[in-house]
Design goal:
By secondary structure, the protein is of the alpha+beta class. The chain folds into 2 domains: about 1-140, Jelly Rolls (Sandwich); about 150-230, Arc Repressor Mutant, subunit A (Orthogonal Bundle). The protein has helices at about 1-10, 20-25, 85-90, 110-115, 120-150, 155-170, 180-185, 190-200, 220-230, and strands at about 30-35, 40, 50-55, 60-65, 70-75, 80, 95-100, 105-110, 170-175, 205-210, 210-215. The protein has a 4-stranded antiparallel beta sheet. Strands 2-7-4-5 form a 4-stranded antiparallel beta sheet, with no helix packed on it. It has a 3-stranded antiparallel beta sheet with strand order 9-11-10. The chain is globular. This is Crp/Fnr family transcriptional regulator. Keywords: DNA-binding, Transcription, Transcription regulation. It comes from Sellimonas intestinalis. Pfam families: cNMP_binding (PF00027), HTH_Crp_2 (PF13545). One of its GO terms (molecular function) is DNA binding.
Amino acid sequence: MEQKKILSRCPLFSGLTEAEMGAVLREMQVKEKDYEKGEILLFAGEVPRDFGIVLEGGIVILKEEFSGSTTLLSQGFPGEIFAEAFAASGEPSLVTVEAAKKTRILWISYGQMMRPEGGGRAKGRLVENMMHILAEKNLFLANRVSHLSRRTLREKVLSYLGEQAAKQGSREFDIPFDRQKLADYLAADRSALSAVLGKLQREGVLTFRKHHFILHTEDEAVHEMEKGDHR
């Protein structure tokens, strides 16, 4: 029962009834596998045929640098998908996936999922959902490249915050990152990011508290600076 609840929260199964989800999983002959903490699920350089969904526990996604150091790129929790882009493209994985704790994974063959025969409406919805997931991740990466291409950290911060304001249709918005995750996303040092945000706030360009931001117009920026001068 708990597994069905977790899968129902996974975007891959959006719009499917519990019965449809069960039928399509049986048709694709999915596999479950348990891993101990520290065990490798996917090695960098490996070409996966399957993608995974975390059922229990959690994973870490690691990037091994040429220097020999390892960078934590992201984490995965129950209900989240990983390795789908590599399974879809047939390209070698650029990352290593490791169990962060005792973990159970549901492995799904990308080839089985994309086979046209069988599954009916549920199979078609599953494929549609996967295309949406891949498109969203591509857009996320394209936006990140756009922000990282800016010359200075100040420009990167303003580029990212401007995108969030446009996406949410307001100059007052919340971002999905805490300070460390935002620093990681912008490939910046956390203390340097905090310094830039502090300076932008003193200049009246923005105000923020934790993950809540307000971007100011030029007139508002002048007013905010004047308020700061009188404090």
